[in-house]
Amino acid sequence: KDDEPLDGDSDVAVQTKIRTRKPPMYKVLLLNDDYTPMEFVVMVLERFFGMNHAQAFELMLTVHKKGLAVVGVFAYEIAETKVNQVMDAARQHQHPLQCTMEKE
Ligand code: TYC
Fold first, then answer.
1. Distance of alpha carbon 87 from its chain centroid, rounded?
2. For a surface tag, which of 5, 8, 41, 51 has the fewest beta carbons within 10 Å of its beta carbon?
């Protein structure tokens, strides 16, 4: 092997595998309570989650009956913004409505 270098290295290109990772997604959860008016919850779902009135009413009823429901699944910063929008609106109207997020 006259043409190989003395150090034993051969001229083979080795490429390190680059692994990318999908960003984690976050569920936005709406929680039931005894005091927030149903119409307010429907309005919140329409305004911040782009639902039509029928969709919003149905999801509000699901939360009312089951205690909580997933309103949507979003990238971290989008989920955070939705939670803040809901919590700010609830605070402004002095309703105890709670909205949280959790990693999917
Ligand atoms: N349980 C409330 C009522 O009877 C309505 C309600 C629904 C409140 C959904 C919060 O996330 C909620 N007025």
1. 15
2. 8
Residue 54 CB burial class (10 angstroms; 0-12, 13-18, ≥19):
exposed
CA-nearest residue, atom 7 of ligand 1: 64
Q: What is the pLDDT of residues 76-85, one digit of tens each?
A: 999 999 999 9
Report yes or no: 72 and 49 within 8 Å, Cβ to Cβ. yes
Q: What is the pLDDT of residues 48-65, one digit of tens each?
A: 999 999 999 999 999 999
ipTM of the complex: 0.98
Q: How far apart are CA 104 and CA 101, in angstroms?
A: 9
Q: In what order do the strands lie in the sheet with 68-75?
A: 68-75, 25-31, 98-103
Provide the whole-model pTM.
0.83
The single residue listed with the structure tokens 């939670």 is 83
Fill in the DSSP letter of residue 36: S
- For the chain, counts of helices (H) and of strands (E): 3, 3
